[in-house]
Design a protein that fits this description.
The chain is mainly beta and 118 residues long. The protein is built from no helices and 11 strands. Strands 2, 4, 5, 6, 9, 10 and 11 form a 7-stranded mixed β-sheet that branches. Strand 5 and strand 6 form a beta hairpin. The N and C termini lie far apart (40 Å).
Length: 118
């Protein structure tokens, strides 16, 4: 059974930093990519950052230069370092694992709240 558990969310002032962590277990298959998505109230879930098995990264334009995604394969962890946070970064952040192959499968964590006050 695949499990993803996020941690590190919280309340921070604008300009501050947070680091989100996602621990995954049960992922006994080839992983294509891992990523972080977010969903603000009344909005659709959107990709924030992703990192492939080859460690290529992809970021939403709104977070480029501020957020950094990384992974530790030995510890089954993926991180999202968030700097220079803005009120518009407020959302529930979800960890995602996408399996390799076609069809692929997506697995999600339960989400962690990030609130940035102005």
């Amino acid at each position: 059974q695949v499990q993803l558990v996020e941690s590190g969310g919280g309340l921070v002032q604008a300009g501050g930093s947070l680091t989100l962590s996602c621990a995954h277990s049960g992922t006994f298959f080839s992983i294509n990519a891992m990523g972080w998505y977010r969903q603000a109230p009344g909005k659709q879930r959107e990709l924030v950052a992703a990192i492939t098995s080859g460690r290529s990264t992809n970021y939403a334009e709104s977070v480029k230069g501020r957020f950094t995604i990384s992974r530790d394969n030995n510890k089954n962890l993926v991180y999202l370092q968030m700097n220079s946070l803005k009120p518009e970064d407020t959302a529930v952040y979800y960890c995602n694992v996408r399996s390799a192959g076609i069809p692929y499968r997506d697995f999600w964590g339960q989400g962690t709240q990030v609130t940035v006050s102005s």
